[in-house]
Amino acid sequence: ELAGAASHTSGRARKGNSLREAIERETDRPMAKLGWLASLAAAVVVVVTLRSPLAAAQLRPGYYASICPNLETIVRNSVRQSMAQSQISAGATLRLFFHDCAVRGCDASIMIVNSNGDDEWRSPDDQSLKPQGFQTVLDAKAAVDKDPQCRYKVSCADILALAARESVVQSGGPNYQVELGRYDGKVSTKSSVVLPHVDFNLDKLNAFFSGLGLSQTDMIALSGD
After folding, report:
1. Domains of the chain, each with CATH number or no CATH
2. CA distances from residue 209 to 58, 110, 133, 196, 212 in whole angstroms, order as listed
3. Which of the following is catalytic: 12, 51, 99, 141?
4. Is the pLDDT of residue 35 over 60?
5. 99 in active site
6. Is 199 flagged in the annotation as binding?
7. Is the pLDDT of residue 120 over 70?
8. Looking at the record, which segments are called Disordered (predicted)?
9. Does the annotation list 120 as a binding residue?
């Protein structure tokens, strides 16, 4: 099991070749409509609060002000580069963020790579995730760690949250403040992933999203692609 910001990076890097191959095979499609991105961002922000009740008390703007003062600028620039390289990176990053938050809270456990193959990203329920989303976060993490003042001091969970926000803003959606201070998860298993299946009817979908404190409007936004 790989945990912590540095471990997330090194562990995911071992998947780098397969990620790059998948990205090369992926044919870019037009980006999702801005309205969908805006709705998705609003819904995911709700999930951040609802699924991280213990962490919510310590989250605050400016958490890294004295640790990594240029954090948001670094992530912003990195996401801009990712979006220039792929038209679907914004939507892919947002979907990745939701899948992370909806399982164990927003702890970046979706980024963990376990040597035994039992981890979230290899769950059947996560196979709809696009490699561009993972790559956007990997690149942002690498950019943050390239700054000596920030190196290994920013959680992967916070970088994922910031990358999701930047994906919305740079797509023309609304800007919103991201409170920081999340801890990276240490556990990631296939069995922990319980997400809506393609055979879910409306009642099952409503029940699932209602359990997260989300409305049917939120459900529609989060189910879009």
Report:
1. 70-194 (1.10.520.10), 195-224 (no CATH)
2. 25, 19, 22, 9, 5
3. 99
4. no
5. yes
6. no
7. yes
8. 1-21
9. yes
